[in-house]
Amino acid sequence: MDALGDYVWPRATSELILLPVTGLECVGDRLLAGEGPDVLVYSLDFGGHLRMMKRVQNLLGHYLIHGFRVRPEPNGDLDSEAMVAVFGSKGLRIVKISWGQSRFRELWRSGLWNMSDWIWDVRWLEGNVALALGHNSVLLYDPVVGCMLQDVPCTDRCTLSSACLIGDTWKELTVVAGAISNQLLVWYPAAALADNKPVAPDRRVSGHVGVIFSMSYLESKGLLATASEDRSVRIWKVGDLRVPGGRVQNIGHCFGHSARVWQVKLLENYLISAGEDCVCLVWSHEGEILQAFRGHQGRGIRALAAHEMQAWVITGGDDSGIRLWHLAGRGYPGLGVSALSFKSPSRPGTLKAVTLAGSWRLLTVTDTGALYLYDLEVKCWEKLLEDKHFQSYCLLEAAPGPEGLGLCAMANGEGCVKVVPINTPTAAVDHGLFAGKVHSLSWALRGYEELLLLASGPGGVMACLEISAALSGKAIFVTERCRYLLPPSKQRWHTCSAFVPPGDFLVCGDRRGSVLLFPSRPEVLKDPGVGGKAEAGSGPVGGDSGTDGSNAVAEWSPVSTLHSLHGKQGVTSVTCHAGYVYSTGRDGAYYQLLVRGGQLQPVLRQKTCRGMNWVAGLHMVPDGSMVILGFHANEFVVWSPRSHEKLHVVSCGGGHRSWAFSDTEAAMAFAYLKDGDVMLYQALGGCTRPHVILREGLHGREITCVKRVGAITLGPEFQVPCLEQPDFLEPGSEGPGLTDIVITCSEDTTVCVLALPTTTGSAHALTAVCNHISSVRAMAVWGLGTPGGSHSPQPGLTANIVSAGGRAEMHCFSIVVSPDSGTPSGLACHVMHLSSHRLDDYWDQQRNRHRMVKVDPETRYMSLAICEPDRPGVGPLVAAACSDGAVRLFVLQDSGRILQLFAETFHHERCVLKVHSFTHEAPNQQRRLFLCSAATDGSLAFWDLTTVLDHGSALLEPPAEPGLPYQLGTPCLTLQAHSCGINSLHTMPTREGHHLVASGSEDGSLHVFVLAVKAPELEEAVGEPELMPQLHVLEEYSVPCAHAAHVTGLKILSPTLMVSASIDQRLTFWRLGHGEPTFMNSTVYHVPDVADMDCWPVSPEFGHRCALGGQGLEVYNWYD
Amino acid sequence: MGRTSKDKRDVYYRLAKENGWRARSAFKLLQLDEEFHLFQGVTRAVDLCAAPGSWSQVLSQKIGGQGPGRVVAVDLQAMAPLPGVIQIQGDITQLSTAKEIIQHFEGCHADLVVCDGAPDVTGLHDVDEYMQAQLLLAALNIATHVLKPGGCFVAKIFRGRDVTLLYSQLRVFFSSVLCAKPRSSRNSSIEAFAVCRGYDPPEGFVADLTKPLLDHSYDSDFNQLDGPTRIIVPFVTCGDLSAYDSDRSYPLNLQDGSEYKYTPPTQPPISPPYQEACTLKKKGQLAKETHPQDCPISRVDALSQPLAAIQCHTVLGPEIKDNKMNCTP
Ligand SMILES: C[S@@+](CC[C@H](N)C(=O)[O-])C[C@H]1O[C@@H](n2cnc3c(N)ncnc32)[C@H](O)[C@@H]1O
């Protein structure tokens, strides 16, 4: 093909990249971050503004950036201008940038220089650079004109895993090379007698038992640090390395990482290391860990930079996140655990319970029935009262709200509750409630208007007391409002309570793990219409609960119950926030719930950090985010789901003892009883951390599937906020914005909803769904609509999604994306979980299971397809390609709330890789649904689902045992398209009424054919199950070496245009319709291991957007 | 998940244990041989990157000839001894190791050189692909010294972005280069094997160990970066269709009716690099950051700062984060 023919067609252009951050460097008050071939420039403006200024595109062509080296300026001026060598893989380019008057500009860039070997390190030597190359050689290179000046190899030729160049002139240039044999070789290129003459190493240093991934030299102290595969960091005393023959002494061997260490950096007073375990550790030069920064997700931290003047450490992750951390030396300021020295002759008795009323008053009771106050500011104990009725058993709970509203409540074993105003304990009010023990006590506060105290007594009766204060503030009133009845269980008491705004309902959790909804004023709710659908039994029940026969007050049952939501260990807290109810439990989960029409609805189950199997509570931080409180073995942990950081860790001994938590903007406090004393942990700044997320990460591991759901047009009022300065204005970012909504799923077990505005080339993660327990491999979308339905459409988009993956697990959920000017993307996404399915659960539920072969719980779902019959009453079918060799069909009913296995076939007898559904429509014929499945042996099978659905079981083999799925009959066509696994599959109807079918394989080949469907005419078909459609192949083509690796993405864009993507990182466009597919052009993209591609048309031109998902995400535009 | 779960997920892993192979890779070589009859007439072979040694097992069983020295096996890692196999521990990309291997073949050539080498992948794709390519090129460099004319070279390749550069390199030395994937290698894996037959170096080629063979680069005529002309060699799937599917999960009782019995691994790994770190972790001796309770403030009034002095370090509030993942200039 000649050059002219090459460029007739426009090429795809990359408009969005999300890749691991592999290079970071601070230049003045700017941060350069390398992402793929692009540089992101952040302003670290000390005035408090921190943001991305610019993306400098495509500096390294098809290479990825691995590092930056800033040219030292003789006069030390790097305030507004710098020459930067950008390198990665075998590519090198110099750019001159300036950022004077906060305008970022690229002043000049050199050519992209290709080296013959991998570049491990670059060092500026005045105007030239020295390069340390892959096979232990060093080049002196003129980067401006792009020519090699000298090339010196080491006599010890081997491949390196890292290298470090030291010195400022060629004469003193020192190489420290990390060989695959785990040795460090130190040698001097200038010792070469002539160009190309190998130089022998001056010193060999061994120590590590794994390869060395990173090195850092601190000239001022003569130290070298190395990071290795063996999970350790070593500190070496080397003196001046530029002097040959010096002694190398290992002075530190630091084990602290739990996986390989990728990066190390020596600072004047610290050593920073980061690795595969996603942890960044700060060490002293003596090898003590001073700080640990956790929060990145996935496969580790890849890049590290430091700003010594500001004491910042910046990390870049495989999750494409960038975070900034504060170096604080040893621990955080104002942190500490102290014993409050309760024990004293003047305070007899042992402590029973502790509580915090706000952040500076701590209350505690003893087994003598005495209530003590400890003022954290004055730091002294004060006895408030003593009541022998509260001796042997006493519950203690401070009221919620600021400073606990100055109230606390006690309860005893004889059914009595005491409400104590802390400032005037003499005004305490006693209230007898039950004949037996009060099992639990909790508060509920609505604004400042309504304060309730709930107490559970014998027989599952929960009394509701209303607390009010006299105008003088001196006296309080306690009146019983009503009684509720909890569902029967062995330990029948409530554990927590909260008002559901606006206040008609109370939500409670109980010891049995159920979440319950009660009307807050049941007596005014006599008319069942008010609280929505009142359940049977929600009316008052006579006081027949047995144990408590004293007064026959009505007892109200819950109007809605989520039975045993948190399992046997119980619910630990309920919190209402931003329209949702959150419940936490000792099952290690927290749920997001919704109250709708007087009913509780589970929305999503959320996961906490690993190992936190006792979630104790949830807390809203002043900055609007949420933190999770819980216990992790014997530690109390405050964990942020947003940053994935453990904000506080206190070794308190576990959650079984009495403890209390409070948090204000100023300080966080955690109190617990230990060894007969009150221990208090306090942290200044509360639960907010100064650490900054410069950029949120996306998935921590490979993306396995991408799907575009739809698009939303945002009016000008929902403009994605533009950064103010003209420099930040993205061209074309004015005017109404069209935003694509794309979903991705990943091996990290999550499904993510992304907004990709078409005009700004940015991406915003809207929500993540974390219900899967194993990797998620496939998704399918159905029921696209707008909020408000078709009757009163509102801006936005709704859709149902089914996701599936490892451990034979499938989940259905719906998403609602709507405009929300309060978020950076201008959009908000709400998710509602609908249903889930696991093959082995299904098996466990079967009665005759001893007679069946157990479904392998390790089965992986490889691909999904939705098949929507056009018949009323029949829900969509989900077809799943399964690794155990089956194609399974599920039915979705009740808009996705019911998901059931319906039929299966083991036709393929090997791992099924792909399923794809399509419909055949022709005049005079019934619309037909087909399913195509493809397996690891290169074969395709076509299934006629319409006939299956029409005739129901007549065409299906009935199951061998009742309760088992039906067996699908024989496919209506099978075809050997490839010699090995089929990794992509797509179809498109042609103008002639046929179907183009295209598949791509592991062997890099494409197969395209025209499929004709001969279906019976409508009239003859009636009631004749024998008249099945006939499928024929009309034309068939194969392109054997279309790609050099698996073709994992393939889409027919029009009857004349097709695009394929492969693990060989080429996106190739093909002309169809004139016999064999012909090559149009191809683009090299940057995402490795692409597993899936989705394409959709973009208006107004005839263009297409292609999203590629693999180890990252990349979006291309292509105009025909 | 019990110890049998890997047996279910990976049928070849299980079969390897049951058949006494040290690794499931044995089936890859057997299936390659099924297709290409690699062992025919072979009396001397080199197994590069051999540990834990299943290929060496296959070679020593399948090739003809007598006496020791028929198979020379090389690996970075230590490997349990095998009868009739000479072992060398070292880095095949290192000059000294290459020299040591070649010494064994002075005066008589090898008929077959195989290399199943793979670096310990880092997850950074470009680095891993490069490292893998260097193993292949180092193996090729060794092959150019020891292989008899017409001999055969089989090496693992990662089919990534730059695999066509390796193909063009191999074509220089062999009359036939194919890409083969045994059925025991997973669909999801990017590994495949370059099967190069008919060793025929270009005229005037002088093998030089001291210079590494570097990968080719793209050119605008024969091997384009993004044009239609690329050197993609024919692809062959090896092993017949009735072979087990490595991507499929199988029930423990396979169809041939034999009863399942758990078999422990044949050859557990010898001292992995992370051993010491793991031992320390087990003993709880990994360094930890100092939690506040480890340096308790024993008395209350020892609190160094009053609680009121707050937010001295929140110059950059967390709310000023950049949510934008990406923007184009
Ligand atoms: C997949 S295993 C080989 C399995 C082997 N063929 C068998 O059947 O047992 C890859 C081996 O390559 C080795 N290797 C990696 N880099 C090497 C190098 N530079 N020199 C020698 N061996 C290397 C590793 O130590 C590892 O044992």
Automatic annotation (TrEMBL), chain A:
GO MF annotations, alphabetized: enzyme regulator activity; tRNA binding
InterPro entries: tRNA_Anticodon_Mtase-Reg (IPR051973), WD40/YVTN_repeat-like_dom_sf (IPR015943), WD40_repeat_dom_sf (IPR036322), WD40_rpt (IPR001680)
Compositionally biased spans, kind Gly residues: 529-546
GO cellular component terms, A-Z: COP9 signalosome; cytosol; plasma membrane
WD repeats, residue ranges: 205-238
SUPFAM superfamilies assigned: Putative isomerase YbhE, WD40 repeat-like
Listed Gene3D superfamilies: YVTN repeat-like/Quinoprotein amine dehydrogenase
Job of this protein: Together with methyltransferase FTSJ1, methylates the 2'-O-ribose of nucleotides at position 34 of the tRNA anticodon loop of substrate tRNAs. Required for the correct positioning of the substrate tRNA for methylation. Required to suppress amino acid starvation-induced autophagy. Enhances the STK11/LKB1-induced cell growth suppression activity.
Protein name in the entry: tRNA (34-2'-O)-methyltransferase regulator WDR6
UniProtKB/TrEMBL annotation, chain B:
Pfam families hit by this protein: FtsJ
Annotated Gene Ontology cellular component terms: cytoplasm; nucleus
EC number: 2.1.1.205
Principal cellular location given in the protein's record: cytoplasm
Subcellular location: Cytoplasm; Nucleus
GO biological process, one term: tRNA nucleoside ribose methylation
Protein keywords: Cytoplasm, Methyltransferase, S-adenosyl-L-methionine, Transferase, tRNA processing
Transmembrane region(s): none
Residues annotated as domain Ribosomal RNA methyltransferase FtsJ: 21-199
Domain of life where this protein originates: Eukaryota
One MF annotation (Gene Ontology) recorded for this entry: tRNA (guanosine(34)-2'-O)-methyltransferase activity
Catalytic activity: cytidine(32)/guanosine(34) in tRNA + 2 S-adenosyl-L-methionine = 2'-O-methylcytidine(32)/2'-O-methylguanosine(34) in tRNA + 2 S-adenosyl-L-homocysteine + 2 H(+)
Keyword Methyltransferase set for record: yes
Residues annotated as catalytic: K156
Positions that bind S-adenosyl-L-methionine: G53, W55, D75, D91, D116
Family statement drawn from the similarity comment of this UniProt entry: Belongs to the class I-like SAM-binding methyltransferase superfamily. RNA methyltransferase RlmE family. TRM7 subfamily.
Protein purpose: Methylates the 2'-O-ribose of nucleotides at positions 32 and 34 of the tRNA anticodon loop of substrate tRNAs.
Assembly and interaction partners: Interacts with WDR6; the interaction is direct, and required for 2'-O-methylation of position 34 in substrate tRNAs.
Entry protein name: Putative tRNA (cytidine(32)/guanosine(34)-2'-O)-methyltransferase
